Amino acid sequence: MGQDATPKTNNFVEAKVEERGPILQSLVQTKTQVFAWTEQQKVSVHGKVSAILESAGSLYVCLASDPEVKKFESELKRMPSQECFFSARLPTDLIFMRVELRRSDERGLHFKLLGSVYKAQRRASLRLPISGEQLALFVSPDSGEDIKAAIVDISEGGMSWVFQGEDPLKDLQVGELVNGVRFEISGRLIECSVEVRHRRTIGTTSANQRFKYGLRYSELSKEDQAFIADYLFEESSRYFGRI
User: Which of 35, 58, 113, 184 has its CA at 20 to 30 Å from residue 175's CA atom?
Assistant: First the structure.
């Protein structure tokens, strides 16, 4: 599945100064795994935060040491800059931050927070834009035949489709279901139904008219839901460094 090169930055909200400490502490309390990576993910590692420290008005994130984290430290120290990015998937939010390796001790690697912590509400806000010819198939409510829909973005809660010229869902009302939906994410086939949440007409003439639908997943398995969440987390991390 392709991505738009320009992220939708309004998905990310800069945390208030007084929120940064509690957000980082929640990484320790929830034992959430952190994804650490350098620009373009040349070097990366997954690890656990063992402590959040404060010194001279600055916040430090301590990444617990293990063999993979030590390898990451060694590779990072060979690079021109020891700056990197952290992202984590909390129960309600995705969080991102820019950090710099300062030192290491028996507790792990100590990274200084550089600037802000950014957050995006997982279900409501983070929509990954899709480029290229990514399609979903669904069963026509009229004929029972398969119809193609162009996917323009995707989130944990649903997706958006666009139809050009003709609207095959024109007779459906908000709240009704589209059944037999199939689409692929990173090579995995997802099957579910989707609920129509809203419909918008774009363009004023038949030649340029498009129909955009906001849809919410229905009858999505827990396994597929978790796969979509993991996919969004990894892909959103790839472009966060450009914000």
Answer: 184
pLDDT band at 6 (very low <50, low <70, confident <90, very high): very low
Locate 203 and state its tokens: 């363009």
Q: What is the pLDDT of residue 9?
A: 41
Residues 41, 44, 49, 50, CA torsion sign: negative
Task: For residue 81, give every residue at least 6 positions away whose Cβ sits within 8 Å of its Cβ, in sequence order, or none.
Answer: 100
3-class DSSP assignment, residue 125 = coil
Count H helices, E strands: the chain?
3, 14
Q: CB under 8 Å to 54, separation ≥6 — which residues?
A: 21, 60
- Taking CA atoms, 73 is separated from 98, 107, 213, 233, in Å, by 16, 14, 46, 23
Give, in words, the CATH class of 128-231. Answer: mainly beta
Mean pLDDT of 67-79: 94
Cα(90)–Cα(236) distance, integer angstroms: 14
**Could you tell me which of 171, 181, 167, 174 has the C-alpha nearest to residue 142?**
171
pTM above 0.85, yes or no: no
Domain boundary assignment for the chain = 11-122, 128-231
Q: Report the CATH number of the 11-122 domain.
A: 2.30.110.10
